[in-house]
Amino acid sequence: MRKCCWRELGRVEYGAALELQRNLVGRRQQGAVPDHLLLLEHPHVITLGRNGHAENLLASQDLLRRAGISFFPTDRGGDVTYHGPGQLVGYPILDLREWKRDVGAYVRAIEQVIIDTLAGYGIAAGRIPKLTGVWVEERKIAAIGVHLSRWVTSHGFALNVTTDLSYFQYIVPCGLTKPVTSMAQLGARATREEVARSLAEHFGRVFDCEMGEN
Predict the structure, then answer these.
(1) Is there a domain that residue 212 lies in?
(2) Exposure string for 152-190, b = 16+ CB within 10 A, e = fewer
(3) Which pLDDT does position 101 carry in this prediction?
(4) How many domains does the chain fold into?
(5) What CATH number did the domain enclosing 86 receive?
(6) Which of 3, 8, 53, 194 is surrounded by the most beta carbons within 10 Å?
(7) What does the pLDDT read at residue 209?
């Protein structure tokens, strides 16, 4: 069975997490390290994907600064999204040549990991056809945006655990006008760290790999 190292990193600045991902991607491409799953949260930050639309950012740079929110354009897929305290962000660094050379299957598998994790907290989540992410009815609870370089993945997903949802007022999340929700809003009492451990277990099962905590 393939091995995957998962790490709970706590709160990490977005730029620092980006550099860590780039370093691991390069080492994974060289076969110097196994697959990784980085689990963390960010300080308040809004990111714009490579196919994003600037009009989905509803606040000026000055207003974001006054609100304590940083801004990063990124090379991930997807549009604009928000990250912040109480949100579980996951960055899988996987060589898909050792799993499936199928980006669509990879995204669906990430969705399944999140759906299964939420089920353990009594939340019935699922998919909406033609829309990436995980939903509870018409409300988005997890966003997904990935990047591949020579079949090695980076970026990933963001699951709202105890996130302050008021920060989504500054964007049109993922370019969609649908509302967002969180595990806390839906009545689940769990810390981000507890959810991270549960998610790592489901990740290992869905991706058929042995998870080792580092």
Answers:
(1) no
(2) bbbbbbbbbbbbebebbebbbbbbbebebbbbbebebeb
(3) 95
(4) 1
(5) 3.30.930.10
(6) 8
(7) 96
Active-site residue, 174 included? yes
**pTM of the predicted model as reported, rounded to 2 decimal places:** 0.95
Active-site annotation holder among 4, 5, 174, 209: 174
Q: Which domain holds residue 74?
A: 2-207
